[in-house]
Structures are given as C-alpha cells and as structure tokens.
C-alpha cells in the first residue's frame, strides 16, 4: 500500500512514456479471488491495469522473492532493472529521467496515449467503511467512511447526526464541514473529543464534537520511518496508523506501517513508541524486543491491550502494567486459515478488528468473512457469526454473509460491524449472532 502514492507521482510526471502494470500475487487465499482484487483496486484508487497472478506464474517467471518488487522493462520488452521493497519518489525520479533521455534519443519511445476502462465505483451512503465505534453512553455510532474520506456520526439506529470531513482527500484542519481526511480508520473517545487514525495522511486527528472542529494531534502528513520517536506529536512523521485505544490519558496507536504500538500522552502531546522493535514478525518478549506484523486492531480489557496482528493472522496481548507481549493465538507470517479450537490449533486469516466484551473478545476475522469469539484465558476460538463465504446476506448467525468485515464495536446488546467490501454497517444480535443491516440515512449526508 505504501508504494502507491509514490507510483502515482511517477505516473503523473512520466505519464506519456511510463506505463505501470500491477501484478497481484497474493499471499492470503482470500486475496486470490478476482472479486477481492477488484475491490482492492477501487478501495485504493488504482488507475493502472492490474493482473491477478493467482497461481504465481508471473512471480516465478520473473524470479520475484519479495512484496513489493518492481521490474523495469524497456520499450523492447527487455528487463533492465529490479527493485525489492518500498521506495521514495525522489529515489526513482532521476533514474527514470535518465532512462527517458536514453530511449528518446534512440527513437524507441511511443507517446501515443493508452486508454483503459476503469472499474465502476459503488454508490450509496458508505464506501469501504473501515472501522466503527459504538458509544452506549451517548447512544451514538461513529463510522469511518474511509472511501469517502469522512466520519459519520449516527444514532444507534443509523440516523445521521453529523458529517465530519468534506468528502475529499486531504489534510485540512478546521470546521467539520470543510476539514479533510484521507481514508480514516480507527477511532476512540476521550471525553467529548473523537480521536481518529487518519491512515493515509499518516496523522492523528482530534474532533471536538461540541465545537465541530478538527485539529491535528500528531503527524506531518508525510509517511515516516522512525521506529523510536520521543517528542511532540506534531513534529513526528507517522506510518499508517490504523486503530486507537484510550486508557486514562494514554492513547495507544496501532502503527501498522512500522509494525509497532505507539503511545501519545493526551495531556502533554508527547509521542513515543510503546511496544515492538519495528521488525515484521510474530515474536513474543519484552515490549522492546517483541515483534508485530501490521497491527491493525486494538481493544482494551481491563489493563490488557489486545492487538489484531493482521499480517501474522494472530491476536496478541500487552500487559499495560507489565513489560511483556504474548501471543494468544497465531503462529506466524505464513500460518493462516479458518480453524476453530484452542491455542496453537487455531487459524485466523488477516484479522483487522477487535472488540472487548466483559467475558470475551470478538474478532473481525476479515479474510475469513466472519466474526469469531475468543476467550483469552483459555485461548479458545469459535466461529460466531458469518458463514465464511464472502457475500451479502442477513439472517441467522452462521448463515449470514459478510465481505471482509474490518471493524467491530458493541453497545446495548448489539454488535456493529464495518462490512467493508459490502459498503454497509451490519448489526449483530449480541446473544444470537443473527445479522441485519443498519439503514444509514439522513439529510446531513447531502450537505
């Protein structure tokens, strides 16, 4: 995901001589489906053609070893370069300029425009909603309408009360109606302030719900690579903050881009790392030694912070009064599936969301298209809602269908689910697991 903004810059500058073709060689089974690839193209605003290399034929033909890998092919179809890993625009700008000069001088460049038919964008009040936050005390639901770059505030029946963000991507503070976000995800409440992980702005935002004002708490707007920050939040570059959890005056941040958990002191504004070395893996140990893999969901149960460690298909626990990170379920980067059971027998597939109930956790097991229950003390996991087949169907718990549910939150006996690729919020009965759809509507949607 992080290379897409850099590719867009190169495509804009060299659009008449550079053609990017994406090759999707999926690690997870759920990502191999063409329908899932199509959803991802729309979700991330990809405009160049993408090939679904579901059987790894192109991966093998080009001897690829890592995600991501860039292959440079000259006008005659010959491979002339290879790069593994992320990159910056500046690193390749000069290289491409030199290539263009060389091939132009040889008369090899064809500047005739290429025309592609884009995938049609879904319509409706929501577009790829990423996270939800249910507030029982305020009878409110906050929806990260990620594809529309805004936050919706509704009542628990779906009637829209506020729209925060003007609907276009950007990083702009100010009144709720003119402020801008970029694919916001996780949220947390701190008094009357809504805290937002503004993921693709690499920033943390604060929304005064009383004044309807948006400010930036942390982040510069650029992606950072620092793994051990310690300073004022507004001066530190973040990397894909994905979810949030508040404990007292401490804000915990799932910093997916650096594979860590960071913390922000909400009184002083000081930002620092909290858990994870920054290496991508599933490794238990002290806060400094432990390793995560794209942590994307957070929830608190007492003094324990639970983490949906998405790329490792695991659930981790962090004792806030201690110094240890422990794996509850999950075995590693390439161990995934859809298997209920206890402890090391359990298999999840890229979970993105977590919600704490008094006696258990609910997991948005995203690529298995299900909600699952986890009892942390016994490490027992069981399917609770969703058939496991991607689709859109309300009804009895294990007959209902989701498509990549990514966020989950509970209030007043109901569980609210951001059903991302269905572009809706689902409502699940907290006792039976039966599923319905929230009717999100209101005059403010058009304002």
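^ Assign residues to that structure.
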């Amino acid at each position: 995901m992080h290379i897409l903004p850099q590719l867009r810059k190169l495509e804009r500058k060299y659009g008449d001589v550079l053609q990017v073709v994406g090759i999707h060689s999926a690690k997870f089974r759920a990502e191999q489906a063409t329908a899932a690839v199509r959803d991802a193209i729309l979700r991330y605003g990809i405009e160049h053609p993408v090939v679904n290399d579901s059987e790894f034929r192109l991966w093998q033909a080009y001897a690829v070893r890592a995600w991501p890998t860039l292959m440079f092919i000259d006008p005659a179809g010959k491979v002339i370069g290879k790069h593994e890993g992320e990159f910056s625009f500046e690193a390749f700008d000069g290289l491409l300029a030199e290539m263009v000069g060389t091939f132009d001088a040889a008369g090899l460049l064809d500047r005739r425009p290429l025309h592609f038919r884009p995938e049609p964008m879904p319509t409706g009040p929501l577009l790829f909603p990423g996270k939800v936050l249910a507030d029982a005390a305020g009878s409110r639901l906050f929806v990260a309408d990620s594809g529309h770059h805004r936050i919706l505030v509704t009542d628990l029946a779906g009637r829209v009360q506020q729209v925060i963000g003007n609907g276009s991507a950007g990083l702009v503070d100010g009144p709720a109606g003119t402020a801008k976000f970029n694919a916001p995800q996780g949220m947390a409440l701190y008094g009357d302030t809504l805290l937002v992980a503004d993921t693709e702005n690499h920033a943390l935002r604060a929304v005064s719900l009383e004044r309807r004002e948006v400010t930036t708490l942390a982040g510069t707007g650029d992606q950072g690579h620092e793994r051990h920050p310690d300073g004022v939040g507004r001066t530190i570059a973040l990397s894909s903050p994905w979810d949030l959890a508040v404990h007292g005056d401490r804000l915990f941040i799932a910093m997916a881009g650096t594979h860590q958990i960071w913390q922000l002191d909400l009184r002083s504004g000081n930002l620092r790392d909290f858990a994870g070395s920054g290496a991508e893996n599933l490794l238990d140990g002290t806060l400094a030694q432990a390793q995560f893999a794209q942590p994307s969901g957070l929830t608190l149960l007492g003094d324990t912070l639970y983490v949906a460690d998405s790329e490792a298909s695991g659930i981790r626990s962090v004792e806030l009064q201690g110094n240890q990170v422990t794996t509850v379920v999950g075995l590693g980067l390439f161990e995934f599936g859809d298997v209920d059971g206890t402890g090391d027998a359990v298999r999840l597939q890229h979970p993105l969301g977590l919600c704490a109930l008094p006696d258990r956790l609910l997991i948005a097991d995203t690529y298995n298209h299900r909600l699952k229950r986890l009892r942390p003390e016994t490490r027992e996991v069981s399917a609770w809602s969703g058939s496991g087949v991607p689709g859109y169907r309300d009804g009895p718990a294990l007959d209902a269908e989701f498509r990549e549910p990514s966020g989950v939150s509970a209030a007043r006996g109901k569980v609210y689910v951001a059903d991302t690729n269905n572009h809706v919020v689902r409502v699940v009965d907290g006792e039976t697991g039966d599923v319905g759809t929230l009717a999100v509507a209101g005059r403010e949607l058009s304002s």
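The chain has a mean pLDDT of 95.
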